[in-house]
Amino acid sequence: MRNLMIAGNWKMNKNYTEGVELAQGLADALAGKDLNGVEVVVCPPTVDLKGVSEVIDQTNAQFSLGAQNVYFEESGAFTGETAPSMLEAVNATYCIIGHSERRGYFGETDEDINKKAKALMTHGIVPISCCGEPLEVREAGKHVEFVVDQIKADTEGLEITDPSKYVIAYEPIWAIGTGKTATADDAQEVCGAIRETLAEIFGKETADGIRVLYGGSAKPGNIAELVAKPDVDGALVGGASLKAEDFSQMVIKAGE
Length: 256
Ligand code: PGA
Prior knowledge:
The chain is an alpha/beta fold.
């Protein structure tokens, strides 16, 4: 069975000192708690990764480390980019790829995202691969096919031997940072279609082991309803991951 996952995406928030403080606050809030198998991940900005990694080690924290982005080349003249091996060296276990903000503001394509997934998997880092439709696609009723096409392109040629080592996050763009959450039924509709697509590509057994998260204004007040849906395996959380109290509440509520 799939363990639920609650992953915090801090985006471009929290400098080094603030990031270490937030990680410490979260470690304290979760210390000694029974999370009922919910896996917790935090994804700080790149310059905070090492500091958060140290907090995780020192406090034996009940969460693991993820990055927000990676480049698919191993090393070389790619100013400003971060290689998978560099994430590995700071003990990042996960890395978000293909977030709609990367696609929208930085022109990332499905081809880039596919290459990033392959590069990460070569280094044993688990991709959290994002997909999701813009508002006009949703309004035109084409959201399921839009997301299915993204999934097919993003997973092309991937070899998934252990389904716990590949994670998808469905994040409808119109629900990100807007306070407009998709209803739990909306989330289930698309997450279910994603799982069917994964079953066509990788077989049912593998598809049944891949976590499909929902993202977009997920918060303590709606997490229980979201994870009650059969194909929603947790959440990728932006705004509500920036306060240790809110985020730890979400983790606990998801596990109840
Ligand atoms: P939000 O962001 O929770 O602030 O809507 C989610 C995300 O973009 O990952």
